Amino acid sequence: ACALRSMGAVISGDGGATIVIEGSESLAGMRHRVIPDRIEAGTWLAAALATGGEVLVHGAREQHLGAFLDKLREMGGHLEIFGDSIRASAPDGLRPVDVVTAPYPGFPTDLQAQLMALLCFADGESRIRETIFENRFMHAQELARLGADIVIDGGAALVHGGRALSGADVMATDLRASVSLVIAALGASGTTRLQRVYHLDRGYENLEGKLSDLGAGIARVDGRTPEGRQMAKAVAAGGGQLRSAGSSAGQGRRRAASVGGRE
Fold first, then answer.
1. DSSP per-residue codes, 91-154
2. Most buried by CB count within 10 Å: which residue of 37, 44, 102, 195?
3. Does 55 fall in a domain?
4. What is the domain-level CATH number for residue 198?
């Protein structure tokens, strides 16, 4: 609505239950900056806490992520807000939480899988209740291949966190499930190979490149069967902390994840 008003449209009521649009004979050109992707921003924050690291995310608006940030704080995550940037650093230990997905401004269903991966590293039992979509726990079975203890009970998932995860071959079933497996792999020991990475490419631009810049051991590789047959492209990821700062000696350049809107 804001963009259309900039073009000369007469629109009112946006943000409420009823939107009123008055017809116009013509609209003019304008320049508009798209808001940052709150789901990608939340993904970076979850990855930082899962690896015990620290990440500064540019283009992350606190007002768009309120319910998600509340849960990260409840888990013990340290968050600092700098305008449209958020720094997340991990505590000594993550606490379990209960979550219920809901329409905006509630907890976003598109961050449910990422939070489930993060909860695998929290000591204790967490409960996630999915109220937006049915059958949106496909990632739980794949997380179990890494060693996660997750029980699905209808529209709820019980996550028994605190178990050490280890690398394994896993399969992505959708966009958010795929990135949750990457988060879990980064916090696990050993190497994880994720198949069907085309799901990742639908929602994340150059994910493995950005993670590598933050210190992750991750690469896109050709997937092959043990017999050598060609498979789909895969992402191989190993455990390691994500860091938005350089080395402890201060020699590295500053790194950050960027989630910027585009004009």
1. -SSBPP-EEEB-STTSB-GGGHHHHHHHHTTBSEEEEEE--SSSS--HHHHHHHHTT-EEEEET
2. 44
3. yes
4. 3.65.10.10
